[in-house]
Amino acid sequence: MKKVIANREIDVNEEGYLLDFSQWSKEIGEYLAEEQGISMSDKHWEVIKYLQDKQQSGEALSIRGIKKSGVIDIKEFYNLFPGGPLKKSTLIAGIPKPKSCI
Amino acid sequence: MSETKVKKMLFILSKGTLENAYAAFVMANGARMEGIEAEIFFTFFGLEAIQKKKLEHLHVATVGNPAMHMPTMLGGLPGVEALASKMMKKEMEKLDMPEVGEFLEILSDSGCKLWGCKLAVDMFHLEREDLIDELDGILTIGDFYNRANEDGTHLLFI
């Protein structure tokens, strides 16, 4: 599916996740966050950067990983991205939704 | 994003085996990760999972469990249950599954409410300090039903 954000066309799947990370930019992330009702702070971006780095090094993302990340604790993670933190943060980060059950 | 009609999951954990505790934990955590509210009510043997001294010693049931593919006589021998539990824990660790205590911390931090059953706590002569610090309180079953206060609430007995 095609989607136009900030005058740029990006490819997304039916759930709205970017298919090609090279199309991602901070501006696009900002728009995607807004659609989820989230206004981005420095802490949000720190988490996004962490997720993108983990994704690039091929590590599976999980809530347990967040606990050990040293970037953010689980409570704060839920506060920053309410209503499904890992699925919302990965959507904003332009990376695939984690497939893990934990 | 897809919008589930499930808004709140209330679990009753009545068994003290490792596999049942994990079933409740994985489902409760999965609910929170989808933005669904989750609460667990620990009753009868399920209380073993929130007793400080016992929670890291839960076992898989090797007797009376046909899916273990182990003769009942063998499953009852000393040490077999411990061995099977150890093997299962090893497999779960490979999948990055947290141990019971850490899982309870994750659930609590994730906003999952954890409740002890008053009747069972009294029956087993337990005190509040025997139970994990993360516990949100001790409730009667009636109190727990009252937690089902919105449309889209589901109750699950494990």
Automatic annotation (TrEMBL), chain A:
<keyword id="KW-0963">Cytoplasm</keyword>
<dbReference type="GO" id="GO:0005737">
    <property type="term" value="C:cytoplasm"/>
</dbReference>
<dbReference type="Pfam" id="PF04358">
    <property type="entry name" value="DsrC"/>
</dbReference>
<dbReference type="InterPro" id="IPR043163">
    <property type="entry name" value="DsrC-like_N"/>
</dbReference>
<dbReference type="GO" id="GO:0097163">
    <property type="term" value="F:sulfur carrier activity"/>
</dbReference>
<protein>
    <submittedName>
        <fullName>TusE/DsrC/DsvC family sulfur relay protein</fullName>
    </submittedName>
</protein>
<dbReference type="InterPro" id="IPR007453">
    <property type="entry name" value="DsrC/TusE"/>
</dbReference>
<dbReference type="InterPro" id="IPR025526">
    <property type="entry name" value="DsrC-like_dom_sf"/>
</dbReference>
<feature type="active site" description="Cysteine persulfide intermediate">
    <location>
        <position position="101"/>
    </location>
</feature>
<comment type="similarity">
    <text>Belongs to the DsrC/TusE family.</text>
</comment>
<dbReference type="GO" id="GO:0002143">
    <property type="term" value="P:tRNA wobble position uridine thiolation"/>
</dbReference>
<dbReference type="InterPro" id="IPR042072">
    <property type="entry name" value="DsrC-like_C"/>
</dbReference>
From TrEMBL, chain B:
<dbReference type="Pfam" id="PF13686">
    <property type="entry name" value="DrsE_2"/>
</dbReference>
<dbReference type="InterPro" id="IPR027396">
    <property type="entry name" value="DsrEFH-like"/>
</dbReference>
<dbReference type="InterPro" id="IPR032836">
    <property type="entry name" value="DsrE2-like"/>
</dbReference>
<protein>
    <submittedName>
        <fullName>DsrE/DsrF/DrsH-like family protein</fullName>
    </submittedName>
</protein>
